[in-house]
């Protein structure tokens, strides 16, 4: 009997904690996707909390055929209130992010 009561109280505590920390869903208020016959695309959306995302993919000639080059941006409000904005390109040479919040490497001096 005592074990049953303890187990029941533990379940009630877990259920209460889940309700306390459950976040309300954030709605998507704008969404656009355009794609052509070659799978080049433009995707953009914005959420109800002000976050936004944009991504574009286009085919460009490369040394071994066409390469899908992507570029885009993300923007959101950080927990400390700052606006974080990241822009990027991704191509045959890799992923290239740019943002004020990213660390900057210091050139080596010999």
From TrEMBL:
List the GO cellular component terms.
chitin-based extracellular matrix
- The answer to whether UniProt assigns keyword Signal to this entry is yes
Pfam annotation, one family: Chitin_bind_4
**Keyword Metal-binding appears in the UniProt entry:** no
Q: Where is the signal peptide?
A: 1-17
Keywords carried by this UniProt record: Cuticle, Signal
Domain of life, per the record? Eukaryota
Q: Which InterPro entries match?
A: CHIT_BIND_RR_consensus, Cuticle_Struct_Prot, Insect_cuticle
- Cite the GO molecular-function annotations of the record: structural constituent of chitin-based larval cuticle
Q: Which PANTHER family match?
A: CUTICLE PROTEIN (PTHR10380), CUTICULAR PROTEIN 47EF, ISOFORM C-RELATED (PTHR10380:SF173)
> What is this protein's name?
Pupal cuticle protein 20-like
Tell me what organism the protein belongs to: Thrips palmi (Melon thrips)
């Amino acid at each position: 009997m005592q074990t049953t009561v303890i187990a029941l109280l533990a379940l009630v505590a877990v259920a209460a904690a889940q309700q306390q920390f459950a976040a309300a869903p954030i709605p998507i208020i704008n969404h656009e996707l355009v794609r052509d016959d070659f799978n080049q695309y433009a995707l953009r959306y914005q959420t109800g909390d002000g976050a936004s995302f944009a991504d574009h993919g286009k085919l460009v000639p490369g040394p071994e055929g066409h390469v899908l080059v992507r570029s885009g941006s993300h923007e959101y409000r950080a927990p400390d209130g700052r606006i974080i904005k990241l822009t990027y390109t991704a191509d045959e040479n890799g992923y290239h992010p740019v943002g004020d919040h990213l660390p900057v490497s210091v050139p080596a001096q010999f």
